Amino acid sequence: MSLAVGFLGILMSAASLGGTAIAIMGDRSSMDIFDFLTASFNLLPAVLFFIGLSALALGWAPKLGKLVYAYLGYAFLINYFGGVLDLPEAFSKTAIQSWFPQMPMEGFDLIVFLTITVISILFIIVGYAGYKRRDMYEG
After folding, report:
1. pTM score
2. Per residue, what are the HEC states of 46-112?
3. What distance in Å separates the CA atoms of residue 126 and residue 132, rounded to the nearest whole number?
4. Would you place residue 117 in the very low, low, confident or very high pLDDT band (cuts 50, 70, 90)?
5. Could you tell me the residue ranges of all domains in the chain?
6. Which of 26, 73, 114, 123 has the most CB atoms in a 10 Å sphere around its CB?
């Protein structure tokens, strides 16, 4: 369910932001809706990464689940205020979202996209295995 909602959330935010921008800019817009969709779906592995971290925490150490929320908040703050605070590049790379290129200004990076996606899927699988194992012992 979280995968479907994550995908739907990205689709809806890209469509609404892109549609609004295109409607306001009119003929002056150099971007079309496809540009907004590709830029948004460039961050799909980041959504999958947080789903994977949550699955790991739920499956193996449920008491650490709050740390996933803490990291999510931390990553948001770093990305939102990092430019204002003039943080070093190495510090900003501790937030998962900063690993991806800023599309459409930068080109798509397939290696980063696939690497984070594969790691996220592995986290989800390992978390699921831990949950099934834990469920067998408790039930």
Report:
1. 0.86
2. HHHHHHHHHHHHHHHCHHHHHHHHHHHHHHHHHHHHHHHHCCCHHHHCCCHHHHCCCCCCCCCCHHH
3. 10
4. very high
5. 1-41, 42-138
6. 123
